[in-house]
Design brief:
The protein is an alpha/beta fold. It has one domain: Rossmann fold. Helix content is 46%, strand content 14%. It has 13 helices and eight strands. β7, α12 and β8 form a beta-alpha-beta unit. It is globular, with a radius of gyration of 18 Å. About 9% of the residues have low confidence. The site of adenosine-5'-diphosphate has 13 residues, from α6.
Amino acid sequence: MVDTRRLEQLLREKRSPARPVGRGARSAIAQSYGASAPAGRAPGRDDALRAAWAALPEITPPPARGHGTGAAGTVAALGHGPVAESFDLLRAQLLQALRTRGWRSIGITAPVRGCGASFVSLALARSFARLDNVRAALLDLDLETGALAARLGAAPEGHISDLIAGDLSAAEYLCRMGRNLALGLTAPFPEGATTLFHNDALSQTLGEIAQEYSPDVILCDLPPLLTEDSTLAALPSLDGVLIVADGTRTQARDLSECERLLQDRTQLLGVVLNRGFDTVAARRAQH
Ligand SMILES: Nc1ncnc2c1ncn2[C@@H]1O[C@H](COP(=O)(O)OP(=O)(O)O)[C@@H](O)[C@H]1O
Ligand SMILES: [Mg+2]
């Protein structure tokens, strides 16, 4: 399901110096990473973090009912079984890469809408949250759809653009699912919010979340790469990106074009093949 060749290559390259960072905000984030690294934690830091997490308002996922594509079915499919297991494998690879390279923020995008970027974002977030010793955050950066909230059966009134623009703090905006998954959900935003990514605002927001909550990973559910300019603008704020290919329709040339767009903006961490089993079934049906 996941092509991890890129991740493995990045891990092999781990002794090479980190890529240059040209932006003040990114340096600030790097500093906050260092400040929150376990070895450097002051004794009171753990208590402060626990209190900060506990103070986030908690939402509960919809009750698991069957395996349809509605909110309950999707969330049910992500909690256990083969789908959950394949995401646990991807999680293990990602954790190793993040820890080896000192990275934290991962974008999840796809060539076009409907490939499953939000599905994969949520599945990965749930997978990280199953680990007791890991804290994860998931931000819905597909501002105009607000798809993650609907998927979780939540109906936020606020817009994540307020968090990114700095009008609301992370403590005022984020909520929590379970003990260790922070969520930045959003109501669908009218057009225009995407210009937010064209400055340092997203880097600053990621830095604030890193500083205040010290998550091991911040997953960012992004709009599609080939059709939305805002995705391109968000990339330089992220340490790396996963591309979700839809096994029933994504073509090799779509992936090449995505790779080209990522170049010099962020690292490609890997390609996740979604609906791969459907492709196999479809081919079998044709023969
Ligand atoms: N592997 C999958 N199994 C079941 N449903 C899926 C799967 N991948 C995507 N979907 C469903 O397909 C629809 C589109 O997926 P979504 O994640 O919203 O795509 P994107 O975020 O790339 O636009 C959603 O209803 C989602 O729940
Ligand atoms: Mg989406």
